[in-house]
Write a structure and sequence with these properties.
The complex is a heterodimer of chains A (about 220) and B (about 260). Chain A has about 220 residues and is an all-alpha fold. Chain A has a single domain, classed as MetI-like fold, CATH 1.10.3720. Chain B has about 260 residues and is of the alpha/beta class. Chain B has a single domain, classed as 3-Layer(aba) Sandwich (Rossmann fold), CATH 3.40.50.300. In chain B, the strands form two sheets. Chain B has a six-stranded mixed sheet, with helices on both faces. In chain B, a hairpin with a 2-residue loop joins strand 1 and strand 2. In chain B, helix 4 runs parallel beside helix 6 and helix 6 runs parallel beside helix 7. Classes of the chains: A mainly alpha (about 220), B alpha/beta (about 260). Chains A and B meet through helix 5 and helix 6 of A and helix 3, strand 6, helix 4 and helix 6 of B. Bound molecules: adenosine-5'-triphosphate (ATP) and magnesium ion (MG).
Chain lengths: ~220, ~260
């Protein structure tokens, strides 16, 4: 492959800017998704009536519709009922909406894997429900859930490539733009791949270290 | 002292059903302060259920349970506070696996009772030294043997300064060589004047530790006698049969020991 290095050097700053947007959307979207997951999984764990059904419906809806469709709904659909959100806001909410269901399922199975006796022995020491969850159940469930959460994070970072569909200048958008303008397909795609790798490889490495630490030095059996 | 002041635990007409099955069928039991009561009964007769009702882990259908004069109602607002008066140790190891031994013990005193950290640690140290496990304070539960875990579980309950301790077959899951170290801790507690309700299948221990024996059979308390009277002269046939199966088992193990030596 014969790459045009002048082209690459000239447009690299564009990728840097786009990567910043990708990371920005991924970071806040995933953080929100995690918060959604914590709340929803706790509600499922405690079998809160009604809310539990609503969450189950949300999980099904979120997991069985493409992110792009969710984004279109937020970006083009909501203005019809008077809610106008910026592209960035739509992207973050979209990632949170999609990721929230994945995080919910991962955390729920973590919570359910903790032996009932843990809750009972905490209760018999006088812990209330909130403290039992915060100090006893949740930390243990997190340790169980870490591999799943890491997988979700990586999946969601990759999913952000869809936000170019609502005209956000993320990595995917820049690459498509350059190809459209200059037909430098090889260069544009090479830079795209490298950009994603530079974001994802460190995340993957961190996930591996985290998982290994939990497995070896971990407290669980 | 007036009578009511001496009573630690008062159970009256306790009835508990799981679905259609009647598990506890009108249990009356009173335990005075400083008394050590051992509850015996064959497997499935409702011993664990009774203990779980006492500290509100299980709701019940009829009757009442009072701890130090205050009524236990499952799910009530007062329950977390009342539970601090009741120390419970379960059969399965129930330490918190993500916290080290010292944290396991001081978590509740600090977070629930809002005691100063130093104060809780000082008491934990004193108790851990008493059961010979101070060296293990930084270890995690999975690094301990079963017997050590149960001793920590006892210490954890004691560090809340409970007024009564409930033990549910705490040695049943242990290897034989570890049973002794746990029972010794309980014996020492009893001699120290702690009010205790103990479920065990260790007859020798029951005899040594108990002021009183209660015998539960099919959800009914059939016997409630001083320990010596119960072992020498139980009043019901069911209790006699129960003791006989243990005699039989004991003879078998003794014979096996003889053969081995
Ligand atoms: N959560 C539950 N749901 C339905 N039935 C239960 C439940 N817990 C216990 N039981 C039933 O209640 C009865 C009494 O159980 P319990 O655990 O109190 O017996 P136990 O005297 O402690 O027996 P063991 O000596 O084997 O520990 C048993 O028949 C058991 O099957
Ligand atoms: Mg039992």
């Amino acid at each position: 492959m014969n790459l045009d290095w002048n082209f690459i050097i000239k447009y690299a700053p564009l990728y840097v800017e786009a990567a910043k947007l990708t990371v920005f959307i991924a970071f806040w979207g995933i953080l929100l998704a995690f918060a959604v997951g914590v709340l929803c999984s706790a509600a499922l764990y405690y079998k809160v009536p009604v809310l539990r059904r609503i969450i189950q419906a949300y999980v099904e809806l979120s997991r069985n519709t493409p992110l792009l469709v969710q984004l279109f709904f937020l970006y083009f659909g909501l203005p019809n009922i008077g809610i106008v959100l910026s592209g960035e806001a739509c992207a973050m909410i979209g990632i949170a909406f999609l990721g929230g269901s994945y995080m919910t399922e991962t955390l729920r199975s973590g919570l359910e894997s903790i032996d009932k006796i843990q809750e009972e022995s905490a209760a018999s020491l006088g812990f209330n429900k909130w403290f039992t969850m915060k100090e006893i159940i949740f930390p243990q469930a997190m340790a169980v859930s870490v591999p799943g959460i890491c997988a979700n994070v990586i999946f969601l970072i990759k999913e952000t490539s869809v936000v170019s569909g609502i005209a956000l200048a993320d990595l995917m958008y820049v690459a498509k733009d350059l190809i459209g303008l200059y037909y430098k397909t090889d260069e544009a795609l090479t830079m795209l791949v490298i950009s994603y790798l530079m974001i994802l490889l460190p995340v993957s490495a961190a996930a591996t270290i985290l998982e290994r630490r939990l497995r070896h030095a971990g407290f669980g059996n | 002292m007036a009578d009511e002041d001496r009573i630690m635990l008062e159970i009256a007409g306790l009835k508990k059903k799981f679905g259609e099955d009647v598990i506890l069928d009108g249990v009356d039991l009173t335990i005075n302060k400083g008394e050590v009561v051992v509850m015996l009964g064959s497997s499935g007769c409702g011993k664990s259920t009774l203990l779980r009702c006492i500290n509100g882990l299980e709701s019940f259908d009829k009757g009442s349970i009072r701890i130090d004069g205050e009524e236990i109602v499952s799910g009530s607002k007062a329950l977390p506070r009342l539970r601090q008066k009741i120390g419970m140790v379960f059969q399965s190891y129930d330490l918190f696996p993500h916290r080290n031994i010292l944290d396991n013990i001081t978590l509740a005193p600090v977070k629930v009772q809002k005691r100063a950290k130093e104060d809780a640690r000082a008491q934990a140290e004193q108790l851990l030294r008493r059961v010979g496990l101070w060296e293990k304070r930084k270890a995690y539960p999975r690094e301990l043997s079963g017997g050590q875990k149960q001793r920590v579980a006892i210490v954890r309950a004691l560090c809340m300064n409970p007024e009564i301790m409930l033990f549910d077959e705490v040695t049943a899951a242990l290897d034989p060589e570890m049973v002794r170290e746990v029972l010794d801790v309980m014996l020492e507690l009893a001699q120290g004047g702690m009010t205790m309700l103990i479920v065990t299948h260790e007859m020798g221990f029951a005899r040594a530790v108990a002021d009183r024996i209660v015998f539960l059979d099919e959800g009914k308390l059939l016997e409630n006698l001083p320990a010596e009277t119960f072992f020498n002269n139980p009043s019901t046939q069911r209790a006699k049969d129960f003791l006989q199966t243990f005699e039989f088992k004991k003879t078998l193990t003794d014979e096996r020991k003889d053969q081995l030596s």
